[in-house]
Specification:
The mean pLDDT is 94. The protein has an 8-stranded parallel barrel, surrounded by 7 helices. Strands 9-10 form a two-stranded antiparallel ribbon. The chain has 12 helices and 10 strands. By secondary structure, the protein is α/β, with parallel strands linked by helices.
Length: 292
């Protein structure tokens, strides 16, 4: 129902406590593609109302340039959920991120609660409960009829729910990462990898981000400004990748290849699906370059 351009880069999505004015001001200067103002985990119960007001004021004040700005609400069944959703609906934010989605019914409830919001407001969902794993495809399929447009995997909460130990190689959640990506891709939903808790050792962060790229994520959610630059670097198209994409586009444009579904490009097979991927890659690179 709600759609965004498929060529919009979402390499880096930085979580910030909505009540931290200093951090929010700094975020306006960082090259993160997405800024997420958090009303949930990062805010103490006694500060929830204050943080909500601050988040709305921050969005209305603007100054984020081409970045997408989302607000993470508290769960719909919490004492703050309904007020959060009502405020975010009229805030002007690009998206509302909702926690602990466990079923298609949860998406339907959030969608209904946002009925008064502008059509442009996206619904993003945290994938972070054991209950949701068997229903990932069904949850992603609700994108046809709701505002749902993005998954963010919440690896910390997921590991907690599993009673698993989240080691640097993330072995316990690797099957879930694959399932989440597959479900998202099947239904045209964007997907971001979970946060890396290590922000002092950027080599550890880079290894985890490389793993996320390997799995097919669009980008990664972050907890510290120091993670933004390496994240953008890893999830940006490389020179060889761009050269291959441009070659595929140029080859399919040749008159002798008109109407063909598969051709050879520099000795390698290229099909129409590769042409589609190439066009998307070039479009994303152009958006990244324009924002630099």
């Amino acid at each position: 129902m709600t759609s965004t351009p498929i060529d919009r880069p979402r390499r880096s999505a930085l979580f910030l406590p909505a009540s931290n004015a200093k951090a929010v001001a700094k975020a306006r200067t960082l090259p993160a593609d997405v800024v997420i103002l958090d009303l949930e985990d990062a805010v103490a119960p006694e500060l929830k109302d204050e943080a909500r007001a601050a988040a709305v004021a921050t969005v209305r004040e603007g100054g984020f340039g081409g970045r997408e700005v989302a607000i993470r609400a508290n769960g719909i069944d919490t004492p703050w959920g309904a007020a959060d959703l009502a405020a975010i609906a009229q805030s002007g934010a690009d998206a509302v991120l909702v926690p602990k989605v466990s079923s298609p019914a949860d998406i339907a409830r959030y969608h209904a609660a946002l009925s008064a919001a502008p059509a442009s407001l996206q619904l993003w969902a945290m994938i972070e409960t054991c209950a949701c794993i068997a229903q990932l495809d069904a949850i992603a399929a609700t994108a046809r009829d709701t505002r749902l447009s993005l998954f963010i995997v919440g690896t910390n909460d997921l590991a907690k729910d599993m009673r698993a130990r989240l080691t640097p190689d993330r072995t316990p959640v690797l099957p879930i990462l694959s399932l989440a990506v597959v479900a998202a891709r099947a239904h045209g939903v964007g997907i971001l990898d979970g946060v890396c808790n290590e922000f002092r050792d950027l080599d550890v962060f880079r290894a985890e981000a490389d793993q996320g790229l390997l799995f097919g994520f669009d980008g990664k959610s972050l907890i510290h400004p120091a993670q933004v630059d390496p994240c953008n670097d890893i999830f940006s198209p490389g020179e060889a990748e761009m050269a291959r994409a441009r070659a595929i586009i140029a080859a399919f444009a040749l008159p002798e290849n008109a109407g063909k579904g598969a051709i050879q490009v520099d000795g390698r097979m290229a099909e129409l699906l590769h042409l589609e991927q190439a066009k998307r890659l070039v479009a994303i690179a152009a958006r990244i370059a324009a924002a630099s």
